UniProtKB/TrEMBL annotation:
It comes from the Bacteria. InterPro entries: GAF, GAF-like_dom_sf, Sig_transdc_resp-reg_C-effctor, Tscrpt_reg_LuxR_C, WH-like_DNA-bd_sf. Coiled coil: none annotated. The keyword Transcription regulation applies. This is LuxR family transcriptional regulator. Residues 214-279 form the HTH luxR-type domain. SMART domains: HTH_LUXR (SM00421). One of its GO terms (molecular function) is DNA binding. Pfam families: GAF, GerE. PANTHER family: DNA-BINDING TRANSCRIPTIONAL ACTIVATOR DEVR_DOSR. GO terms for biological process: regulation of DNA-templated transcription. Transmembrane segments: none annotated.
Amino acid sequence: MAHSAAAVDLQTALLRLRRSGALPVAFGGLFTGARQFHISALSGTTSRSLHGLAISAGNGLGGKAASTSRPMSVADYRASRAISHEYDAAVEAEGLRSVLAVPVVVRRRVRGVLYGALREPLALGDRPLAAAVEAARELEQSLAVHDEAQRLLSVAQQPTEADPALWEEVREAHVDLRALAGRVTDPLLREEILAACRRLARASSSPRHPGRPPERCPVELSPREVDVLACVALGATNAVAAERLGLRPETVKSYLRSSMRKLGAHTRLQAVVEARRAGLLP
């Protein structure tokens, strides 16, 4: 995933955490290597003492949360005996006392840590922890979506001699990604996912027809019409497509009929063929 996209997702998570009202200070970072991450985003801080701080797995509160893959908190950072104190100077320069750290875990791998903090030595209860965990989970979803989009695009750029089974994997993942887009509430993230799907459809059609650009469809299909056709392309029945997309079978049938009419197709198979020719499906 591009570093700029990761930075935006991280900053958004910190703002969401602060807006919960439970923690006035939030900061965090994502791993750039196997054993270390840097504090790269701040929200609600009054200094730059924490920015750029390199956190090693196992060290300090965040490093310990990362190594154990579970949230941790301390009521008084500088007095705590549960953590090591390599980063006390930076924490004290910002005036932080109560601090919690929540690991960001994507597919069982810790990708970073979100912190929330108070300037008073108070025990952090369930409300701050719940807010931090929720922010971390939403960040995890964003990272997972970007990872999958990048994986799909890299697969689509395989040589023209790619194993046909690999294309089936691409098509399967393409459907999953489009289904995920329908459940994402952030409109910018949703459009980013759909844009990646469109790039995937175009990229995957080119290797099979060298030197010839994909044909342009004279009509546009709605996102849901493309979703349904993507499922049909995998051999799904209306009922299976409905379950996968979270729709009713009657709704799927309606979308399918509409897309067939727009594509000038008389059968499900013909609709899939025409959609692929138009660069709408991989």
